[in-house]
Amino acid sequence: MTSLHTDGGVPTGTPYGTIPPASPMPARKPVSLPRLAHMRAQGEKIAMLTAYDATFAAVADAAGVDCILVGDSLGMVCQGRHSTVGVSVEDMVYHTASVARGLHRSQGTTWLVADMPYGSYAESAEQAMRNACALMQAGAHMVKLEGGGWTARTVEFLVARGVPVCAHLGLTPQTVYALGGYRVQGKDEAAAQLLRQQSLELQNAGAAMLVLEMVPAALAASITQELAHCHTIGIGAGNGTAGQVLVLHDMLGMNLGKMPKFVHNFMQEAGSIKGAMQAYVQAVKAGSFPDNQLHAW
């Protein structure tokens, strides 16, 4: 029979692995909306990674990752789907709660963003609020929704009711079939102008963060400069954004398909998962990742 060490009667190890024990004193102040605004004002890049379970979340927190995104990308990396469309609210609540518990076993300082999955906010603002509440009650600090135009009204509705919102423009995976595939967005002037317009609308509606995915680097940098109060997070959008995000499995070299152009395998040089995360954070903050010559359009 396996013997487990205990801390006040609570097991600290299991026969299936060990989650780091809760730290008595955090090594850094918790990331918050004011802290993110301060980072932006000081020119400090925001480092975001996805995570889907307690252990990876705890390691990311200890490695100094500023924000964790519980992405609906879990549909592909955890569930083996071909897209994010099949991910449910129940899936997102489960994984968000798992990540939140992992953070509380580490420093508990990382800002936690949860994706609102396909179909969970399109019917009405009330539907969006109901599902946002489920994610917030599971431990999220902020919810993320995709698209521009009509979504601005939903963002305004949520923010007015105390729900911090991250928007998402460019390649929006939930509508990948309508976009015709995983393609760079905003390449011609009309498309670029629409992205600028929608970015401003989302900021004016109250979005505090905006993911720009697979957008030309020059356009993403221009949008970033135009948004005084909404912090852009790039993925395949160059190094001119206020921060960066990658799918955890991609930056660890664990992608089962073709590695996207905008990804760098940080595991190769680091030799450990925590080391890879730390290297990613350092590269983002130093401005050495992404390299516009290698990782952008």
Description:
The model is unreliable at 5-11 (pLDDT under 50). The protein has helices spanning 33-42, 54-62, 74-77, 89-104, 125-137, 151-160, 176-179, 189-205, 217-226, 248-251, 267-270, 273-286, 292-295, and strands spanning 6-7, 10-11, 46-50, 67-70, 111-115, 142-144, 165-170, 209-213, 231-235, 243-246. It is globular. It contains 13 helices and ten strands. It is of the alpha/beta class and 297 residues long. Strand 6, helix 6 and strand 7 (165-170) form a beta-alpha-beta unit. The strands form two sheets. The protein has an eight-stranded parallel β-barrel, surrounded by eight helices. Strands 1-2 form a two-stranded antiparallel sheet. Helix 4 runs parallel beside helix 5 (125-137). The termini are far apart.
Key words describing this protein structure:
single chain, 297 residues, alpha/beta, two-stranded antiparallel ribbon, globular
Strands in their spatial order, largest beta sheet: 3-4-5-6-7-8-9-10
> What's the gyration radius in Å?
19 Å
Overall mean pLDDT score? 92
Shape: globular
Helix vs. strand class: alpha/beta
Strand content: 5-15%
Q: Give the SSE string.
A: EEHEHEHHEHEHEHHEHEEHHHH
Distance between the termini: 56 Å
**DSSP strand count:** 10
Major sheet description? 8 strands, parallel, barrel
How many individual helices?
13
In short:
The protein has helices at residues 33-42, 54-62, 74-77, 89-104, 125-137, 151-160, 176-179, 189-205, 217-226, 248-251, 267-270, 273-286, 292-295, and strands at 6-7, 10-11, 46-50, 67-70, 111-115, 142-144, 165-170, 209-213, 231-235, 243-246. It has 297 residues and is α/β, with parallel strands linked by helices. α2 packs across α4, α4 (89-104) runs parallel beside α5 and α6 packs parallel to α8.
